[in-house]
Design goal:
Largest interface: A-B, 60 and 43 residues
Radius of gyration of chain B: 21 Å
CATH architecture of the largest domain in chain A: 3-Layer(aba) Sandwich
Strand content of chain B: under 5%
Structural class of chain B: mainly alpha
Number of domains of chain B: 1
Distance between the termini of chain B: 33 Å
Shape of chain B: globular
Helix content of chain A: 40-55%
Oligomer: heterodimer
Number of strands of chain B: 0
Strand order of the largest sheet of chain A: 6-7-8-3-9-10
Largest sheet of chain B: none
Order of helices and strands of chain A: EEEHEEHEHHHEHEHEEHEHEEHEHHH
Chain lengths: 339, 267
């Protein structure tokens, strides 16, 4: 599902990357076919070790694919490395600005690297410092900045040349909730004002949900879902939980609930649960119907699905669980976990 | 955070069609970036000088006077060469830090060429090397050491080339020890003292057994130190000076070749 009108700005065909560690070959990314259009805001969501970062590292020319191809901004990531690097901005998991450097110097140097004249690089650095609220710290050693300030500086580094495509690898990892919210706001404003394509990886469901127009769920190196967060969730359906007076009422209520289109109903004691698409719209009618039959439900809860429910439904495990397993797993190569 | 325009186009001239920087512009960018922390905190160059200064203070007084001049006249060139070797071989640690914190990765994704990332860093080594040499000469000149400026300048040029080569090797080592920082320090510390001793920096190798003499002859630093000794004394024996320069050139070519290979494989 792409909203591409022109040629896609990111296009992969059979993109695959293996890592070999201790004679074990790990397929970090398997046969990935992706198309991302100009101006899309996309999140790669998946547990640690799922292959999100490896995909990003291939798209940003840091590592070559084992097989398959990828084109970014019209250039192949292997044969057109330099052109790709000129077109993209990259905010990695670490800090783009050197810790012994000053932020302003790093912005100017990055601008020069992208072919700006000295004067242009300086005034661009001034703009970014002002826009990202870094005026107070731009002339200090980067190592003395707070986590949130450093992250804003990293993003400024990625924006120096107004890239057509901006890649953000786990941008909010290690930030407190306040700074994470600030960062999300910043990414949204960026996207709205520049029209750049933005691709970010995250293992925070809330972040993918709040931020991205399109969520690509990745697990074990392959895409398992690719849609808007809203569609992914509404396809799964809401969870209705209805508490009744006794089991007799519950049995009747379960029968009614089962008539809702596509509902999966379960009854435990006096409680009925139903997973059903557009459940929040169907619930009032169901209550009216039960009332008409002389029943007075004691409670009702409508849980909108989360992306975690989506992940659970797709993989049989919750994202948090998968995340913990990936951390504990020794099968995943070191490079991949680090990546 | 300000909500000011993030989309200002005015000053941004870089588009995929704007001219590509050449190797020299990229190298200059990398070199000046590397130099900023050094020039901002010049005291940092003393770090690599601790050991050489200890040898100068505690070892030099034990040396007997030589028939053709003071012991310092013989010893100081070696100490200067030792400082070059120490300083340039430590420099990979800066890259290790940048690999850990993420800025090396950022540079790899930038349009800067791999060769400029290596050569710019290696060329920067010349500046701390000059500062360190100046400090040593300032310290020893009031004592029984004769300063011959012309010779010193030529010696410094030879040492600069040597530092660039050692610096490049140090970066290659840092890149190769990615994920295992201890490898860098183990190899650096293990390699440095044999190289120093075999070059006859602390003691002359005149009466050395055959195997030691052969090992010394294979060490490029031996020729560099001999040339620096001659030049610091104000003499210009052509064969010694050329051999010293050639020793530095061998290290520089080897270092840059190995360093480039490592930088191209870096991810």
């Amino acid at each position: 599902m792409t909203t591409t009108h022109a040629a896609p700005v990111i296009e992969t065909r059979g993109l695959t990357r293996h890592f070999t560690a201790h004679r074990n070959t790990v397929e970090a990314v398997r046969d990935l076919d992706l198309e991302i259009g100009q101006g899309e805001l996309v999140a790669f969501l998946g547990p640690n070790g799922a292959g999100k970062s490896t995909t990003l590292r291939m798209l940003t020319t840091l590592i070559p694919p084992t097989s398959g191809t990828a084109r970014v901004a019209g250039h192949d990531v292997v044969t057109g490395q330099r052109e790709v690097r000129r077109a993209i901005g990259f905010v990695g998991q670490g800090n783009g600005a050197g810790h012994v450097q000053h932020g302003r110097d790093e912005l100017v140097s990055q601008g020069r690297a992208h072919g700006l004249s000295r004067t242009a690089a300086r005034s661009r650095a001034d703009e970014l410092i002002e826009d990202l609220d870094l005026s107070a710290v731009a002339d200090r050693k980067v190592s003395t900045l707070s986590g949130g300030q450093r992250r804003r500086l990293d993003i400024a580094m990625g924006l120096v040349h107004l890239p057509r495509v901006l890649f953000l690898d786990e941008p909010s990892t290690g930030l407190d909730p306040q700074n994470r919210a600030n960062l999300q706001g910043l990414v949204e404003r960026l996207h709205a004002s520049t029209g750049s394509t933005i691709v970010l990886t995250t293992h925070y469901l809330e972040e993918a949900d709040a931020l991205a127009e399109r969520v690509i769920v990745i697990d074990h190196g392959a895409v398992i879902a690719d849609d808007t967060a809203r569609s992914l969730k509404s396809a799964l359906g809401d969870l209705l939980t209805i508490g009744l007076v006794d089991e007799v009422d519950a049995a009747v209520a379960a029968e009614h609930a089962a008539r809702l289109p596509g509902a999966e109903v379960e009854r435990i004691g006096a409680t009925v649960t139903a997973r059903v698409a557009r459940g929040h719209e169907l619930a009032p009618d169901l209550l009216v119907e039960l009332n008409r039959r002389g029943m007075a439900p004691r409670s009702i809860e409508v849980a909108r699905p989360t992306l975690d429910d989506v992940f659970l439904n797709l993989t049989g495990r919750s994202l948090r669980e998968a995340h913990e397993n990936a951390d504990a797993s020794s099968h995943t190569s070191k490079e991949e976990v680090a990546a | 955070m300000s909500t000011a325009t993030l989309d200002r186009q005015a000053t941004v001239a870089a588009t995929p069609d704007s001219p590509v920087n050449g190797f020299l512009a990229d190298t200059w960018n990398v070199m000046t970036r590397e130099l900023k922390p050094v020039l901002r905190e010049p005291v940092s160059v003393l770090f690599a000088m601790v050991q050489p200064l200890v040898f100068l203070g505690l070892f030099a007084p034990l040396l007997p006077e030589t028939p053709d001049g003071s012991a310092l006249q013989w010893f100081v060139p070696g100490i200067v060469a030792m400082t070059c070797l120490m300083g340039a071989s430590f420099t990979g640690a800066n890259l290790t830090n940048e690999m850990l914190t993420g800025s090396h990765e950022r540079l790899l994704v930038s349009p800067l060429s791999r060769s400029s990332l290596l050569v710019g860093r290696a060329l920067k080594e010349v500046v701390p090397m000059l500062m360190q040499t100046a400090i040593i000469l300032l310290v020893v000149t009031p004592f029984s050491f004769d300063l011959h400026l012309g010779g010193v300048l030529l010696a410094v040029a030879t040492l600069a080339l040597f530092s660039v080569g050692v610096g490049a090797l140090s970066f290659a080592l840092a890149l190769a020890s990615k994920d295992n920082e201890w490898i860098f320090w183990t190899v650096q510390q293990t390699a440095i003292f044999p190289v120093l001793l075999l070059a006859g920096i602390l003691l002359p190798l005149d009466g050395a057994p055959r195997w030691l003499a052969v090992a010394s002859d294979l060490n490029p630093l031996t020729y560099v130190v001999e040339a620096v000794r001659a030049l610091f004394s104000g003499t210009f024996p052509l064969d010694t000076v050329v051999a010293g320069f050639a020793g530095s050139a061998v290290v520089a070519v080897l270092g840059v070749a190995v360093g480039l290979r490592a930088m191209r494989n870096s991810s």
